[in-house]
Each structure stands twice: as C-alpha cells, then as structure tokens.
Design a protein that fits this description.
Blueprint: H1 2-19, H2 34-39, H3 43-46, E1 59-64, E2 67-71, H4 73-81, E3 91-92, E4 97-98, H5 101-104, H6 116-120, H7 127-132, E5 143-147, E6 157-160, H8 162-168, E7 174-175, H9 178-181, H10 185-191, H11 197-203, H12 208-213, E8 224-227, E9 234-237, H13 239-245, H14 264-271
Signal peptide: 1-17
Keywords: Signal
Protein name: PSI domain-containing protein
Amino acid sequence: MKFLLVSLFAIVASVSALRGGPVKETPRLTPPDASCFKKANTVDVCEQEASSDGTGNCVWCQTKGDDGICISRANARDVVEIMRIPCPNYTDPREDSIVDVAATRTTALPTPPDFSCFHSMWDGENAKITCGESRAKDDSPCVWCSAGGGDHDDAAGACLSNDEAIMVNGKYGLTCPSMDYLYPAEDVIRTGIPDVNCFKAAWVADDAETACGGSKDASGNDCVWCRTSGDVAGVCLSRPESSMADGQFGLTCPGSELLERVSFEKFMTMQQ
C-alpha cells in the first residue's frame, strides 16, 4: 500500500505535466519523501519519527479501516487536499492548524487529477476485482496495473485511469495490460494531446525515415514511419496516431492496430 501511494505521486505529476497549460492551472504534487514510510507502519511509531524533508514529524493517513501509511507533512498536504484521504493529525505547515478535511472536499481545484480509480480500491475486499468493475471520471474503465509482474488476485498493484496507466506501464515496477487502457479512436480524437515528438524528429532530419525509426514519442514508445502512395514521401507519427492515419489519404503505417476507423480530417484536427 505504501508503494502504491508513493508511485501515484510520481504518476500524477507526470500525467499533469503532459496535460500542458499554465502551471497555475494544474495542481502539482510534492515529490515523495521516502523516509517516513520506510520507518513506520503504525500510527504511534509514525508520528514520533521526523521526516527528512524538514517539515516536522511524519503524519499517519488512514487508507481503509485501521490500515494506513506514514508520510511526510508535505506529502500529507497533497493526500488531504487533492487525493481526499484523511490524515487525522495532519497540521498545515502554512497555518499550523488542524486541517478540516470536510472543508477541503468543497474546495474547487482547477483541472484536478483523476483519483476516482485510485479511490475505488478501498470500496471492496479485493482491490483488483473492484478496480476492474470501476470507471474513471471520463467513463473509461479503470486499469489494474500489477506490481512486480504478479497477476494473481491478491498481488500488489495500483488502480489507475487510462491516462495514468499509459504513463506508468513499464515504470515504477508496474505492468498495465494494453487491452484495458487503449481508447477507442474517437476518444483519442476527443481527448488526446497531440504528440509532436515524432513529427519534429523527422522534420529536422536529412533522412526523415531513418530519423523517425530511431526516435521515441512522448510516452517513450517507438515512432512509426507512415509511407505515402508510391513510397515517395511519408510522415513520422506516434503509434496511436499511426493507428488512426493508416489507410487514410494514401498513408500506410506498418504495425498499426486500428481500434476504430477515424477520418483523416479528424486526425488532422487533433494536430491543430
């Protein structure tokens, strides 16, 4: 459980950064301080330990029943104000007063991260099964990402939204099944953020096709070279984009796995 929350700090920070927009408009999570959760697994021991980030003693936060995690005060602020997990004795270092958890639930946060899947783990006896039956805020299915490659029902893991699962697959020791988090193509058009990494890699190179093959998209996956009719030109795209472009306007993208055909006009609209 400790691993899940610390991983989630890094996950949401990465996803928030990709969403773009002014920094003021996106809640930013404090980098995780590992010292507290390594020291204690009970409330009494936890709150006697000092965190390494200089914010005072560690804080105990309840996750489910008598279970909880030991984290720093800086991380507890994110847990209380953004993730809505109660930390009974948390004191805001800015005000030195006990935080009213109920009041924070009514605070409007601009473009908050999607924690609906993460919270679903506490609603059932089996976190993995409950996760598979839950949905994110955008109504897409939640994704169970297994830790350490374990796939049995009681293995450790994290329940994440599609965007978060895409970001962490293969990172932080988590494995997320691709069949669960791939959006239908129409949803990619509606919610996707254009990935210009691949396009730029080919645009500035003397040999575009070679440069494309050696480049990575924003998610760290290989770029795809899509050829035009007659193989006289082409375009370098991320794999999701190549899936949508394959077969449209004379483009052929090797290895594409179309989930749903989408007109190339819509594909180009996403790039604008």
